[in-house]
């Protein structure tokens, strides 16, 4: 699979800080929240400052491409900015070099130019903002928009209001539209929500609709009424009529000479955040022509103020009411409203906190993390290469169905790294698997996990599935938990055990049941199966086959039809077990007991094998008399076949299985067998429980979802 590669370009000069520039400087870090995404940001202009690009260069998986360095020989522009035709030619060359999965562009003229290149049609998502959203849209513009909509498979629009306006404008269903709301950096520190300095702040462009001159005027009036009140102004970009020389000079003079105004000019986004943090009240008051009930775009600056815990003055519109609530206390229409609300909120601590909390809570929907979480499924849909997954471990029998599923899934490729013991493995093969893999799935957390945690690469995902024996062994103590993305634990009880013993962070653990093939297990029962007890696996001694014999013996004494079927390897077949004197003595005693008993002919040993569904056809009751277990898969298999489980109350049994099947003594087990329910509805209830909880169809999807989440997750 490798990384998802994204080319990002906007017809935007990042030397000037305005909303579109901030958008572009936000998209890159938002996408780069996933270490498995590589973002190449092509710059439009020669860098004259690093106000917006400086922080981007600190992000490992964001690469800012300077076209006037790398592509200077093919740029004809005499100025320091790319034309749209030059930009798309460079995009073409970059795509030929890097084979991007996804291209995101902004700028209507840029979109038109990109449409001339067939290679971009399927992989490009344009972000459209620069068009009229109402009756002011010309016939020519609507035709252009329709061509864009028909040409690309997807496009971004800013809000649901923009989407509705767009649909109405060109009469389309809007199915191709993805919403790309304004976004703001994540805030990791809770604001204090308190007024400190009586300081207002405006950050943004200078434009009539942004009330530049009105803000200067109202600041003077506020300062005359209360000398503590002052306004900090951030920005240096004059637009439209305010760019006219005389107007611009006059405004600059007022900004510089008004005692209650501190004009800091253009600063980096990070420095702007610091200035907002030190301020008390944001100014997002714009003209009614811009902010009204028909408005379809949301100001990112308003969200910036809210993110940092600052209430903001903003015009009342339907969109702002939906965002902040109709009762938000700082809606302003006129200069008089501005003065009244400013004085009120700066003097009333409770009102200040109320307004600040409302806007802060609203802003959390628009953080980089929230934006990525909304878009990740869409973004990753452009990655067509399969995810390469290695299953590693000494015993993969419980993972067989998982491996089969992923081998048959075209979205994945699978390799196996089978260890010869808990620790021993072919290191050359393991290294080859490591070089190949996107995801490493360690079945058991033993030496396999220690090795892969030590050697995994930064972009790789490491998942471990823990069972039971790990808690009594050394290996998890030698695992760097920071290198493991997720631990799957097979019972809720074992999750708590692993947390208590190894302090595995809870957020890195999830509970997913062991899986069975319920369909294969659903076979008809043989005659007399109701008199047949079964135990599957009697090694080692903790499996307590002696208790199974106790239950069987009591039943046999009352009814000679009862039989006990013991399936699995016999002790003498396992050399390491026979090397332990205590285990050897235990099984010798069990063997002698059987040989000397009058019921010995009714105890049948069935060999170890993959014929569990057929074996269960003759089993009415599956015994689980162990001292302790992980989840004991045989129980879920038996239930799927319709058998009744008889489960000794080993720790954690009640977190996986129904209490009606759990007993605490031999007498209880005997009674449970005698009172076993075999009505059709009872049998179906057992099968249904197993099918709904443990079936492979469900579990493989849970594991697949987890893997995809881990591949796509943020840092």
Automatic annotation (TrEMBL):
Q: Per its record, what are the GO molecular function terms?
A: glycosyltransferase activity
What's a GO biological-process term for it? lipopolysaccharide biosynthetic process
Swiss-Prot/TrEMBL keywords? Transferase
| Superkingdom of origin | Bacteria
Matching InterPro entries, A to Z? Glyco_trans_1 (IPR001296)
Query: What positions does the domain Glycosyl transferase family occupy?
Result: 536-659
Does the record's keyword annotation contain Transferase? yes
Which sequence ranges are marked TM in the entry? none
Question: What is the protein name for this chain?
Answer: Glycosyltransferase family 4 protein
Which organism does this sequence originate in?
A: Listeria aquatica
